[in-house]
Design the sequence.
């Protein structure tokens, strides 16, 4: 097992303590830098930094960054959510490391969804039923991984499936 233990710190953004979401920094007791290209290959990181090595993931509006000795997660609702994400990452890091002989490591980020391609798949009525002021804002939120096909009520089933298929190519939770 590569990653065994870590110490976490949960906090609110210092720049605006009124924010409701929490942030988490987990200090890793073991160096996982050698596992990062394998983790990136398995999970399809949004972006990969080579020096110093780090891999970033976006999931449901959260940015998750795994460094050699640290994991940072933003936009958390509570400490339980932080624990769930950290334990999931710990399992993924260890599985990627244990299976590294069968994984082709990757130091490249995955392609990113294109805002205009998403917008083309939307009804473009600016109805606000999704909770966003315009379809363009919805498209931007979908490109970030915050919104998905199910979040656009006016989409007909075939259009919903096309949007889901498009976003699914980028490993977004849709």
Sequence:
């Amino acid at each position: 097992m590569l990653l065994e233990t870590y110490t976490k710190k949960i906090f609110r953004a210092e720049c605006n303590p009124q924010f409701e979401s929490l942030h988490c920094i987990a200090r890793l007791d073991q160096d996982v830098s050698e596992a990062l290209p394998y983790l990136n290959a398995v999970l399809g990181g949004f972006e990969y930094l080579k020096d110093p090595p780090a891999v970033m993931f976006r999931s449901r509006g959260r940015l998750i960054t795994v460094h050699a000795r640290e994991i940072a997660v933003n936009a958390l609702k509570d400490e339980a959510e932080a624990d769930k994400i950290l334990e999931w990452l710990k399992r993924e890091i260890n599985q990627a490391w244990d299976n590294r002989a069968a994984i082709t490591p990757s130091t490249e980020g995955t392609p990113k969804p294109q805002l205009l391609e998403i917008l083309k798949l939307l009804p473009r009525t600016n109805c606000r039923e999704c909770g966003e002021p315009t379809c363009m804002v919805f498209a931007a939120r979908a490109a970030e991984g915050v919104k998905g096909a199910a979040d656009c009520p006016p989409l007909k089933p075939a259009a919903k499936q096309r949007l889901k298929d498009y976003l699914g190519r980028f490993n977004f939770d849709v």
Observations:
- The chain has a mean pLDDT of 91.
